[in-house]
Every structure is written in C-alpha cells, then in structure tokens.
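In full, the data.
>
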Amino acid sequence: MKKKIILIGAGGHSTSCIDVIEKTKKFIIVGLVDKKNKKFVRVGKKKYSVYSEETFLKKKFCKNILIALGSEKLTKKREHLFNKYKRMNFNFPKIISPLSYVSKHSFVDEGTIVMHGAIINANVKIGKNCIINTKSLIEHDCIIGDNSSIATSATINGNVKIEKNCFIGSKAVLVPSIKLKKNSFIKASQLIKK
C-alpha cells in the first residue's frame, strides 16, 4: 500500500522530486506547501495542489514530508524546515530513485533524496535531509554531512569527508581523501584538490 507524502517547496526542484517519487511507486503525493501564490504545480499532465503552511498544519494531510527546496542559497532554510517539522513529529522517508545505484554496503539517512542516475558506492554514509542530484557520483568510503546538496553530475571521489550544510555545484570534482568544513560552497565545475 502506498504511503501519502507532501513536499515542502513548490519551485523547480520540486518537479524533479515529484518525478523521482512517482517512479518509486511507493508514495502518493497529496500536495506541496509553499508561501508563493501558486495554486498548483504541473508535472506532465498531472497537477499537484499547493497549500499554505497554515492550511497544511491545520488539515494534517499526512505525516510524511520531503523538503523539496533545491537552490544553493537555501541550504540553511532546508535545515531549519527539517528541524522545525521534526520537532512536530513528522516523518522524513528517504527517497531513492529506482534509476539510481545505491550500494547495499552504504547508508542513506532520513529525508534524503537520491535522484535519477546517481551512483552511491560501497561504505558511503549520506546524512539526513540531503540532495544527491541527477547523475552525481559518490565514490567509496565517503561521508556526506546532514543538509548537504551534491548537484548534478558532481564527482565526489573516494574517502572524501563533507561536513553538514555544504553545497557542491554541478560537475564539480573533489579529489580523493579531502575534507570540506561545514557550510562550504563549491562552485560548478570547480576542481577541489585540498
């Protein structure tokens, strides 16, 4: 039986999240929550209703949430919302695209989404509320801290440690065995050697 889920955020990233969630065939999306004056988000021929936070909390559509804010400027906001709803006892299922590869010898924590084409290899630990975006590669023995975002086609080589609240831009490459401090921001296509 499919579980109900609601997405927090109705911007561009939410449409990609919807596509991944639909592909898993594990959840029914009951809507999105956003401050914008949108009435719905369209993905293909489907429309998903957008509610205010006040309406969502009043009607309590479901207990499962995914934070669907994807901009590099919103890392702290993602952390704030995760902690806020966690205190309200909402659940944060991990969402893993069936079109991704996640090693059985790795660990993905709650609230994290692994998008289409992503690869997570052995002995990797992914924290809470992370985005592992389309076609990104997380090699063996890496640790990705909570609330971090690995953008499209980024390459995180073996034994890299990324602390919480980091953003790694599209096509960035991190060489093996480096460590990134919390709140680090790596631009698209950068090569990080130390």
